[in-house]
Amino acid sequence: MPSSILKEVGHLLDAASTRDTVIRLSCPSCGSVHVAQVLGDNGGVSYVCTACGHSWS
Prior knowledge:
The protein is of the alpha+beta class. It has one helix at 3-17; strands spanning 35-39, 45-49, 55-56.
């Protein structure tokens, strides 16, 4: 990257590379990480496994 861009976004790159925790959501039924987040009928958030079809909130 050109140095002028690095001056502007360097702090963002540093923050992104030093994150301690990565949270990966997996299906409680089959363990797949292929999970979609969907809005429920009441405005809440639910999850659906695209591998096995299991849904939970």
